[in-house]
Amino acid sequence: MKVVIKKTGINGEGIGYIDRLPVFVAGALVDEEVDIRVVERKKRYAIGEVNRIIKKSKDRIQPKCRMQHICGGCPLMIARYPRQLEYKKDVLKQSLIKYAQVNPRKIQNVLPSADIFGYRNQFKMPCAMEENRLGSGLFMPNSNYFIDIRRCFVHEDELEKMRARIMDILNADGYLGYDHHQKSGIRNLVVRGFDNRYQCTIITGEDELLPQTIDKLMRLPGMYSLWQSIHTIKKTPEIFGPKMIFLAGEKLLPLHLDGLDLEISPRSFFQLNTKQAIQLYRTIASMISGNHEFIVEAYSGIGAISLYLKDKAKEIIGIESIKDAVVNANRNAKKNGCAHVSFVCDDAANKLVYLSKKRTIDVLVVDPPRSGLDDAMLECILRSKIKEIVYVSCNAATLGKNLAVLQSCYHVEKVVPIDMFPHTPHVETVTLLRRKERRK
């Protein structure tokens, strides 16, 4: 069956039409004519697999990674990078027009990544046995089939070298993959690094790591912080278990970022592309003009955005529900001499209701998870008198749905997409909203 690909889907797949029914085709690019096999047909859409490409896009290239078609993590690696940026802008535009009727002229071009390979500063990879060897890799999409990934091209080069050395030590000391029945073995490996200093967390069952293993790991060049996490819950999306054990080195990993000195704990979130994180923070700061009395950041994590905005207000409060991150953030505020910046552990909507009743909030910065702002948060914002909102989003669909609600009280001023993850369909978006003036 022949299909012409008309646009790109939110997961990086091509979308064509058969008798007006949309067909999602992984590995196909816009303007390509492909011969496909329909593998699943629903009432409102179908899924197809490419048999052969009849007419290739001029933007198609050979992917750098030989696992690209199996892994599924970098579906856009088959396209030239400038074209990837156009795809991402188009997907963002589709979502914002579909859900919120945002004027497309307010959506700027995607700011490109400084590096398109070797940009990720962290990985969280499952571990399993492969040919009698403990490997780190991934499970194929929608399956339990494990693939040992020996080289990932979007990870920083030194981070990949550290992964290989850690796996060599674990194998030399006889560690096995996780067994749910025995609640024993290595489940995941998480490593994050800045400036050739690395924080490693080994997620296990109810095991104790051998002293000799800990000693060997700490002797690795650049190993700075070593942790273990006990995780025996069978079905959960969480990587880390509820129990964290500090093993050796320093508890926190330092990061110098565009004039800020930060420290990060293993479970704390930080942007995966360090260079683009700077571009993201600069973009947020550029949207906040003048000096304000009071800024609030919701979902503040380790406090990087609030601290980056330290010169924008006389007082800044960050709200975060994860206790570890709040402790981390307040340490970072003290480390950077920011007595006027503080962080509280609370539900974002609950605390924002309290603050908006007590104070006039000049600017609210929100950086929610992929699920976006919940109903309680949206209702709180609409009832408040917050003048401006800077909305940082990693999900175009939830951003569009949230903007549709917020536009009853706010104008969308501008939308700036930033490419944090080359070769993936994801794009970070910063949107400035300004409260509408009430008619007298």
Automatic annotation (TrEMBL):
Keywords: Methyltransferase, S-adenosyl-L-methionine, Transferase. PROSITE patterns: SAM_MT_RNA_M5U (PS51687), TRAM (PS50926), TRMA_1 (PS01230), TRMA_2 (PS01231). The keyword Aminoacyl-tRNA synthetase does not apply. Residues 1-52 form the TRAM domain. The active site is at C394 (nucleophile), C394. The keyword Methyltransferase applies. SUPFAM superfamilies: Nucleic acid-binding proteins (SSF50249), S-adenosyl-L-methionine-dependent methyltransferases (SSF53335). GO terms for biological process: rRNA base methylation. S-adenosyl-L-methionine binds at Q271, Y299, E320, D367. InterPro entries: MeTrfase_TrmA_AS, MeTrfase_TrmA_CS, NA-bd_OB-fold, SAM-dependent_MTases_sf, TRAM_dom, U5_MeTrfase_fam. Belongs to the class I-like SAM-binding methyltransferase superfamily. RNA M5U methyltransferase family. NCBIfam families: rumA (TIGR00479). This is 23S rRNA (Uracil1939-C5)-methyltransferase. It comes from Longicatena caecimuris.
